[in-house]
Every structure is written in C-alpha cells, then in structure tokens.
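tool=predict chain=A
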Amino acid sequence: MQGRVYFYAASAVVIWSTLAATAKSLLTAIPTFETLFLSSVIASLFLFVLQLARGGMRAFRAYDLRACAAMAGLGVLGLFFYLALYFYGLSQLTSQEAC
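tool=predict ok
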C-alpha cells in the first residue's frame, strides 16, 4: 500500500512538472482555445472510461439533471477559465515565466 502512495505522488510530480513544456509545444502548433478544447475532451473521455471501468456509473444516476448542470457549470467556470488563462499565458510567455 505504501508503494502505491509513493507511485501516485511521483506520478503527480512528473505530470505537473511536464505540463508547461508539453502545453508550450502544443501551443506552437495549434491555437490556444483549440488546445484547451482538445485537452478538455481528452481528459473527459479518459475520466469517463475510467469511471466505466470501475463500475461507477451508478454514481451518475444519483444526481438529477439540475445537479449535473450545476456541476458542469462550476467545472466550466473553474477549470475552463483557469486553463484558458494558463494556456494564453504560455502562448505569450516562455514556460518558465508563465509558471
């Protein structure tokens, strides 16, 4: 169990530390909002498949349509705008300055 904790911690450090370099190289090839859209779609699909594999679709049935809309709205407000500003900053600055 302790090994799994260290694996997750090390994975988080590696993923977070390579985010700026990866995003910066993406932004040289495609525009800011297209990068944002693609990263959001890929992350959403990955998390949906992971939820399916874990058998967690019952959790979605526990919420009504209004609660799902509220969660989606908060996700857009929080994560979308954060990433939009982050990717825009990366497109205007070097990775080191943006981080």
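Residues 2-29 form the longest helix (28 residues). The chain is about 90% helix and 0% strand.
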